[in-house]
């Protein structure tokens, strides 16, 4: 069963076809994805470094607290 398209429908389908074939915005999308990836990688790196830094700080704190200094009573 074939239906006749109106002029408006035909123009809309033509416009949609041109829109889907147009690749001028692809570069922008690539940069957005690349930027998002860099930001995520940075967040993961900072999170890992933060955990290691807090662990090291706790170790230093424990080590310093366990030491005694001669003459500190004065």
From TrEMBL:
Keywords for this protein: Membrane, Transmembrane, Transmembrane helix
Statement: the UniProt record of this protein carries the keyword Membrane = yes
Q: Which residues cross the membrane?
A: 31-49
Protein name, per record = Pilus assembly protein
Per the UniProt record, the source organism is: Roseovarius atlanticus
